[in-house]
Amino acid sequence: MLALLGVMFAAMWLWKTNAESTTETPIPYSTFFNWAKEGKIESVVLDGEGLNGKLKGPETVNGKSIKSFHSNLAPNDLNLLPILHEKEVRIEVKSQQQPFGVQVLMTLLPWVLIIGVWVWMSRRAKGMLGAGGPFGAFMGNKGRKFDKATSVQVTFEDVAGSKAAKADLWEIVEFLKEPERFRRLGGKVPRGVLLVGPPGTGKTLLARAVAGESGVPFYSISASEFIEMFVGLGAARVRDLFKEAKKNAPAIVFIDEIDAVGRARGAGLGAGHDEREQTLNQLLSEMDGFERNDLVVVIAATNRPDVLDPALLRPGRFDRRVLVDRPELAARKAILTVHSKGMPLAPDVNLQHVAENTVGFSGADLANLVNEAALSATRQGRDNIIAENFSEAFDKIVLGDPRDTKLDAKEKNRVAIHESGHALVARFSSETDPPNRVSIIPRGMALGVTQQSPSIDRHIMAQGELEARLRVLMAGYAAERLVLGSISTGAENDLKEATRLATHMVAHYGMSPRLGPVYYDHDAEHAFLGQRIATESGTSPTTISVIEEEARQILGRALSEATNVITEQRGQFDLLVASLLEHESLEREDLAKIFEPPSVP
Ligand code: ADP
Ligand code: MG
Ligand code: ZN
Q1: Of 93, 118, 150, which marks where a domain is finished?
Q2: Which atom number of ligand 1 is nearest to the Cα of residue 338?
Q3: Is residue 419 annotated as part of the catalytic site, yes or no?
Q4: Could you tell me the mean pLDDT of each successive run of 10 residues in the chain, 601 residues long?
Q5: Same domain for 389 and 440?
Q6: Which of 224, 474, 487, 525 is the S-S candidate for 260 at Cβ 3.0 to 4.6 Å?
Q7: How far apart are alpha carbons 516 and 514 in whole angstroms?
Q8: What CATH number does residue 558 fall under?
Q9: Domain check: are 496 and 535 in the same one?
Q10: Sheet harboring 147-149: ordered strands across?
Q11: Are residues 293 and 342 in the same domain?
């Protein structure tokens, strides 16, 4: 496009300079002819239609004294030339045609433009479709429709932990490797496997590993790509994908993020989701169309199994589910080991400790952690990675990058009070983890942070623990209100989290005596919009307002409990604030020195 513009500019510039030559005073032809006869003209330049001339001396035209002029020529005035010759006027003749270069340009320009726009449009269309675009076939340029890997190098060894998932998938590997033997032993031919788990837990990795282990071709496509395509293309692609896979069977077809097309049909609001439904229907009919002997296994991955169309889960389709969960301690250590393989770790790095401190991290988070630690070591110019690099990487992932923001003294004081509130209440509440670190150094989105790190994997939380969590969450707000006598914007995120938690306690966990043991779907995500629609689920407005009242009561209770703790432990609270203002960041050991041993609750 840029080159094209350049050509246009050049052409316009040439044309302009060409047209600029006639700015002389125009005079009638008769005046010119008379001047010529009177011998007043020194020279003329003829250019086909007109002429520019120079006078020997100034002449007055319309009260203006001029020395040069322009005049049109009378057609075929045969008298003019002899007179000019006679009077010895210097005559110059310019071609009336434009320079050759300009002529060529002028002829070509429209074509260049048309072809340019055409190429540009077809490229754009191709980008949009990934399938050659409307001009794709015409231009003999077929785009790739899906990813194909004839041999995948990933094996189960690259997937750390996930023992149960690997055991489930091993059956698929055996089937693809030796289908005859598998059938002889009476195995039921697997068709579709749905990998279910939170983002970053290694679903895509596992699917690739199945292909790697069984040594069959791997056809993959991400369902989210279908959504942005023109109607009909998604279905066509699914058809091609299965055709190709069947031709090269045994093979694996992998559909990543299947929830993008597999959401329950009819869930969309209004029209315009034909594409998704057509693609889904095509997928279903392809899976039904498998012959008994087709050696194609379809693996799909999702983190939203709840929104999938029930038709997808029927027998013969994705009737096997493999759960891929967040890694627990041992798995986290294994993942860290896999990803730090070949990296120079200093002796002070203890992957067991790192694993203990990364409760809730997914496999992808852990891979990222190792990578960030290596980057941090590189930045410091080290030739090995030390423990400090790991804690820096951890902070970066959990808290975000340090900010340049400088708090003024007043703000700093408020943040210190707020964070001390969280830390103190965490310290003096039973059923919650003690504070691990308090800091008033702005990082990421937060101005300050109080970290409590759970040291073990939690699977359920008791009511008392949730209440303690609420108390800790409300403690920043409570401290500001109690000590400074005013509230600031700093508590927004705390209140948001606390409100969400309290609402869940009431509506989902049956923890409100007034509502009893009921699950209200009042804030379920809408299946298609992916956002909350309060009344959509059929919970009555009355119930919703009771839920809100109950949640508010729970929050009020947590706030007053937090305030009580701060009032009772005011001495230690003030110590903590002072120490925080001085050091800005307090680690576990510093905190242990400030807090007296707890009085037995
Ligand atoms: P998902 O598809 O579940 O969102 P991915 O398979 O894309 O997750 O995982 C992202 C990355 O995280 C992988 O490429 C890998 O580096 C890392 N990872 C996740 N789980 C594991 C695991 N169990 N073992 C090793 N690496 C893992
Ligand atoms: Mg994935
Ligand atoms: Zn807070």
Answers
A1: 93
A2: 25
A3: yes
A4: 46 45 75 85 81 85 83 77 82 71 80 83 56 38 56 86 90 86 77 91 93 90 71 78 86 88 62 70 82 82 87 84 91 94 92 90 95 94 92 88 84 95 93 88 85 77 94 97 95 94 94 91 50 56 90 97 96 95 90 73 51
A5: no
A6: 224
A7: 6
A8: 1.20.58.760
A9: yes
A10: 147-149, 218-222, 251-256, 296-302, 192-196, 320-323
A11: no
Q: Are residues 132 and 150 in the same domain?
A: no
User: Which CATH number characterizes residue 73's domain?
Assistant: 3.30.720.210
The pLDDT of residue 526: 43
Q: Write out the residue range of the structural domain in which residue 341 sits.
A: 331-398
Q: How far apart are CA 420 and CA 406, in angstroms?
A: 19
Does some domain include residue 305? yes
Under DSSP, is residue 517 helix (H, G, I), strand (E, B) or coil? coil
Q: Report the number of distinct structural domains present in the chain.
A: 5
Atom of ligand 1 nearest to the CA of 160: 24
Q: Are residues 318 and 344 in the same domain?
A: no
The Å distance, Cα 81 to ligand 1 centre, comes to 91
Residue 404 lies in a domain: no
The pLDDT assigned to 466 comes to 95
Residues 423 and 524 in one domain: yes
CA of 471 to the centre of ligand 3 (A): 11
Give the separation between CA 463 and CA 504, rounded to whole angstroms. Answer: 11
Q: Which residue has the tokens 């407005």?
A: 541
Q: Which ligand is nearest to the CA of 498?
A: 3
Any ligand 1 atom below 6 A from CB of 154: no
Closest by alpha carbon to 176, among 163, 192, 190, 164? 190
Q: Answer yes or no: do 212 and 313 share one domain.
A: yes
**Residue 511 near residue 467 (C-beta atoms within 8 A):** no
Does 369 sit in the ligand 1 pocket, CB within 6 Å? no
